[in-house]
Design a protein that fits this description.
The protein is α/β, with parallel strands linked by helices. The protein has a single domain (10-297), classed as Rossmann fold, CATH 3.40.50. It has twelve helices and eight strands. The chain has an eight-stranded mixed β-sheet with strand order 2-1-3-4-6-5-7-8, with helices on both faces. Helix 3 (73-87) packs parallel to helix 5 (108-117). It is globular. The two termini are 24 Å apart.
C-alpha cells in the first residue's frame, strides 16, 4: 500500500473549481486522478461533478471530459472505449465519474448492460447517499432514517448495496473505498487501471450540506463510517472478496467497531431518530457484519 507522502505530486483537479467547501467528491477525485494519471478520459453524467468543473469555457479538470445525460454514462463510456480501441489508443483509460443518483437509480440500467457486455472501462461511483446537486432528494443509496427533502420524516426503506449488485454481474474487479483512507483508495484505483474489462469502485463521500454537518468534519465522518461498520472497505478480484484497511482489522478482531451513535449524532439528517430507529440501524449493521464474517471465514 502506498504511503500518503508517496502519492504523486501531479494535480489533475485544478484550483478555481466550483466545489462547496469541504466537498468530498473533489477529495475523492483528486486522489483518483493521481492514480489514473494524465491519460484518462472522464465521462461525467448530471451530478455535482458536472458543476464542480467550473463554468464554460473554463474547466478545473486537467483531463478530457465528456459530460453526458444522467442515464447514459455507462453507455457513453462503452462508446468511448470502442472508439479508443478502433484508434489503437490502448494507453488511455475511460472512467465514468458518477454520483449515487446516476448510478444506483437513473444509471443502473446502462451500467448493468455494460457489465453484462464486458465493456472495457472503469466506473467510479462517489456515493453521498442522495441527489445532492438537485436539492438533497433521497436516492437508492440513502440509508434508513435519513432526512432528505423528499423523506422529511426520515427514509423508511433500507439502502441498496450497489457494489453487491455489480458483483452479481461477475466483473473482474469491484471495490469500495472512503476518502478518509486515501492510501487504500489510491491503491484500488491504481489496481483497477492495470486491469481490463468492466471495473467498479464505489467511494463513500459524506456531503456537508446534505448530511447536515460542519464542513470541517468531512473526513472525520468518512472515517467514523468505516470505524462504526456503517461502511465496509473491500475489493473483489474475479469474485474473490478481500477486506482491506480498517475493515480488515475489524474482521480480524484487532479493532472493535465504535458505537454507531458516534457516527449518527454528528449528522443533522439523523437528528429526529427515535430509539427504535437507532436500534433498527444497529441490527442492520450487525446483520451485515455477520454476513461479512461468514465470507471472511470462507
Amino acid at each position: 500500500m502506498v504511503a500518503i507522502p508517496k502519492l504523486p505530486e501531479e494535480e489533475y483537479l485544478l484550483k478555481g473549481n466550483a466545489a462547496c467547501p469541504g466537498c468530498p467528491a473533489t477529495i475523492a477525485l483528486r486522489t483518483a486522478l493521481k492514480a489514473l494519471g494524465k491519460k484518462t478520459m472522464l465521462i461525467v453524467p448530471a451530478s455535482c461533478s458536472a458543476v464542480i468543473q467550473s463554468l464554460v469555457p473554463k474547466t478545473s479538470f486537467a483531463v478530457p471530459t465528456l459530460n453526458i445525460a444522467f442515464a447514459a454514462s455507462a453507455a457513453a463510456a462503452s462508446g468511448v472505449a470502442a472508439a479508443l480501441k478502433m484508434l489503437g489508443k490502448d494507453d488511455i483509460t475511460p472512467v465514468v465519474w458518477a454520483g449515487d443518483g446516476g448510478s444506483y437509480d437513473i444509471g443502473i440500467q446502462a451500467l448493468s448492460g455494460a457489465l453484462e457486455r464486458g465493456e472495457n472501462f472503469i466506473y467510479i461511483c462517489y456515493n453521498n447517499q442522495m441527489y445532492s446537486n438537485t436539492g438533497i432528494q433521497r436516492s437508492g443509496a440513502t440509508p434508513y432514517g435519513a432526512w432528505t427533502t423528499t423523506t422529511w420524516t426520515g427514509k423508511r426503506e433500507m439502502q441498496k448495496e450497489l457494489a453487491e449488485i455489480v458483483l452479481a454481474h461477475h466483473p473482474p474487479y469491484v471495490a469500495t473505498a472512503s476518502i478518509a483512507y486515501p492510501d487504500d483508495l489510491y491503491d484500488k484505483v491504481k489496481k483497477a487501471k492495470e486491469m481490463k474489462g468492466p471495473r467498479y469502485i464505489e467511494i463513500l463521500t459524506p456531503c456537508p450540506p446534505g448530511w447536515r454537518f460542519d464542513m470541517s468534519k468531512t473526513v472525520e465522518l468518512a472515517r467514523l463510517a468505516v470505524q462504526t461498520g456503517a461502511w465496509v472497505l473491500y475489493e473483489a478480484i474475479n469474485g474473490k472478496i478481500e477486506f482491506t484497511s480498517y475493515s480488515k482489522m475489524l474482521l480480524k478482531g484487532k479493532k472493535e467497531r465504535k458505537p454507531i451513535e458516534e457516527y449518527l449524532k454528528l449528522q443533522g439528517r439523523f437528528r429526529h431518530l427515535t430509539e427504535e430507529d437507532v436500534k433498527k440501524i444497529k441490527e442492520s449493521i450487525d446483520e451485515k457484519w455477520k454476513h461479512y464474517m461468514e465470507l471472511y471465514e470462507e
